[in-house]
Amino acid sequence: KARRFLFTVGIGAMVFGILGYLLFVPALPHATTVALSLIAGGGLSNLIDRIAYGGYVVDFLNIGLGGLRTGIFNVADVAIMVGAISVILRSLKHA
User: Is 77 annotated as catalytic?
Assistant: First the structure.
């Protein structure tokens, strides 16, 4: 129960924090806006799954070769990763 509560509330707080940042910080670069929007959208999708499915996220993409499974994830996870990698690359570029 504590894990479910922590993930649901924690993810909710982070998603709404990112959305607040996007709404109230003026003149963000377009690439940053897109990257943070991907993170927030993916996080919101996973949050909805957690609320609807008793604390669990539905992962439906199972990538692998033969018996080797290299990844089990969903589209929201891809959006979060693309957004996070974009933010990291932009911060490294500007450091």
Answer: yes
